[in-house]
Design goal:
Length: 356
């Protein structure tokens, strides 16, 4: 490791430490509403990062993220609910005896939610990733709906359409943003590894990548499974944020919200996904007034539920038409730019899109 690499490592470590310090201070000074919005932004960031790995870096048009999130939510929720809560909630049919007295700590439940989602991602990806483009999108969308329907009907395990309630509540910024920061660091390491170079080669030209000796199917399946894992992590965090889940939350429209964030931030930019997730979460609250009754120049306008998503859909359409690259395009936050502005010359001066 040369001196510039060491300097960039130290700067990155300092940023991480300062970020956790800021989160600790914010936890004690912000009100519960702002904390909830920031925690939701962290969940959206994890979802956008994981979908960007699949779509932006590997070039696979997948619409199954809501299904993987559903799996993570239910796994974490069932494992962490108290036996007393399970006995009350499962009144249509008793919960399966193997799960009745299980109560895990929160962090292991989050991790297992991601692992189970990754296993489903592997099983779904094995047949589906042999398809391409629109066919792959339709197949993954279908699998996501199958997952939701199965969850609705496996009543002794998931409580069916009634969903789960009394899931333990977690409101710590350190937990949510800690998971988001770890996700960002892990995916940056992957993108800057031989796997990441193979993913981008497949995205740019599959035929050329195969001619270079890259196993196309293996790397697609790897990317899809990793993306499913982090989607499951986000689903588990969502369960602890809202403490009540049901299958209707995970319809395919939820995947389009995540797709909107990825496009807004820039397909092929992890930094852009995080920035866009924060913007999206804040705007979702700021624009809440458009769904409320209002008086406009003496004209009474009744509230229209769902109007926020209409505005976001129009925004997505404008981005696709006039600013397709998004906020960051394929660029990442780069320490080289900062060091060069400080007069410290680096060996990578002038390169774009490098994550350091």
């Amino acid at each position: 490791m040369d001196k510039h690499a060491k300097l960039k490592f130290i700067l990155t470590l300092l940023v991480v430490l300062v970020s956790f310090g800021a989160l600790y201070i914010a936890q004690g000074t912000m009100n519960s509403f702002y904390i909830r919005v920031l925690n939701l932004a962290a969940i959206y960031a994890i979802l956008a990062l994981s979908l960007n790995l699949i779509l932006g870096f590997t070039g696979m048009f997948s619409l199954g993220h809501a299904g993987f999130m559903c799996i993570g939510s239910y796994v974490a929720g069932i494992l962490t609910m108290s036996p007393a809560s399970k006995e009350i909630i499962y009144f249509m049919e008793p919960i399966h005896p193997l799960l009745a007295n299980v109560q895990w700590p929160i962090l292991p439940a989050i991790l297992l939610g991601g692992i189970i989602a990754a296993l489903f991602g592997f099983m779904i990806g094995f047949p589906a990733l042999r398809l391409r483009d629109d066919y792959l999108a339709i197949a993954t969308l279908g699998f996501a709906e199958i997952i939701r329907i199965v969850v609705t009907n496996v009543i002794p395990i998931t409580n069916g359409a009634l969903g789960l309630k009394n899931i333990p509540s977690v409101d710590s910024l350190l937990v949510y943003w800690g998971c988001a920061i770890v996700t960002l660091i892990v995916l940056m390491r992957i993108i800057n590894s031989s796997w990441g170079y193979a993913f981008k080669a497949i995205r740019d030209n599959e035929i050329a990548a195969q001619a270079m000796g890259i196993n196309i199917f293996k790397h697609k399946l790897l990317s899809f499974t990793i993306g499913a894992f982090f989607a499951g992590i986000a689903g588990a965090l969502m369960a602890f944020l809202i403490t009540s889940i049901d299958p209707t939350m995970y319809r395919f429209t939820f995947t389009f919200q995540i797709l909107l964030i990825v496009v807004l931030g820039g397909m092929g930019s992890l930094s852009g996904s995080v920035i866009a997730a924060v913007i999206f979460s804040i705007l979702m609250e700021v624009l809440r007034f458009v769904e409320q009754p209002m008086n406009l120049l003496g004209l009474e306008i009744s509230g229209i539920p769902g109007m926020r998503m209409v505005i976001f859909s129009l925004g997505l359409l404008l981005i696709i038409l006039f600013y397709r690259r998004g906020l960051m395009g394929t660029n990442e936050f780069n320490w080289n730019w900062v060091l060069n502005r400080l007069g410290i010359k680096t060996s990578h001066q002038g390169k774009r899109g490098e994550a350091n």
